[in-house]
Amino acid sequence: MNVQSIIGDTPLVELTTFDVPSGVRLFAKLEFMNPGGSIKDRMVDYVLADAERRGLLRPGATIVENTSGNTGAAIAMLAAARGYRAVLTMPDKVSKEKRDALRALGAEVVICPTSAAPDSEKHYVSCARRIHAETPGSFMLNQYDNPLNAEAHFRSTGPEIWEALGPAVTAFVASGSTGGTISGVSRYLKQRNPAVTSVLLDPVGSVYHRWFHHGVLDPAEIAPYFVEGVGEDHLAQCMDFSVVDDVLRFTDADAFAACHHLARHEGLLCGGSSGANVWGALRVAHSLKGPATVVTVLPDSGGRYLSKIYNPQWLSENGFGPGATSERDDDL
Ligand code: PMP
Fold first, then answer.
1. What is the ipTM of this complex?
2. Which Pfam families match (predicted)?
3. Rounded Cα distance, 233 and 255, in Å
4. Is residue 228 situated within a structural domain?
5. pLDDT by residue (tens digit) across 57-82?
């Protein structure tokens, strides 16, 4: 058994401590139980295996990617296990725990300003492209625009959910960045049962919500938020809105409140996007009448965010203390 062979087949648990309408069940797939600690192991393993098969990735070559952290962890893990060099670019808002984990696995980490505009040379995506162009024989996964990203979820995450719950699945709900998870899982589930509803969750400050509802890509929409790994400042080609039925917006406060509930009442210590996903799954659950089953994923663990989401001082310094108000505006 090697590290690749234990990716996927994650447990699916029922969340029972949230208030849901009678007959509505809520399930979460524990993606933080992948060996690299997140849902991204699936996509990276799938893309690298494909590149190896097609001769695009040769022994000892360099893998370059822009990543908010979890893709980097998966690349660093699989590069170490398969003998590749890894160079990862990321915005400076990514937690120190994540950066240190990548360096511990032997990856080289290049930190770029979060505030850099998407078309600027300093933006972490442009930076990865430049390193890739300058490094002979290097391979870039290009996770935002690579159809294999969504295909990884079409071939693994989606089928695993269907195998576990079958036709009982009513809705799949998930936040997204590249869109690989929501696009791949939704496509698979809808192929099995076209009545399955798919809902994308988008942080306030990201462009997807407005794009989906109004067809407008508004740079003024882009604003900082704390939840890591989800939302975007541009449209990823991998995000397939043809399999998405609705997009809901969440705030950091929504996500963090759900994280705290998951930790204290379900015993699940998760990252911010998991909180967002459960917040959204609950919203969807409340729009349904039982019998219904809502499924989501918990993309990564809270261990990487102890100094933020689970630190009372950080929370109150950043406006998430008791009595904090949500700045989400559902009319937008
Ligand atoms: N949650 C976290 C913590 C992530 O790192 C990511 C990937 N950036 C996602 C959710 C979203 O996944 P996807 O890129 O498949 O949309």
1. 0.99
2. PALP
3. 19
4. yes
5. 999 999 999 886 899 999 999 999 99
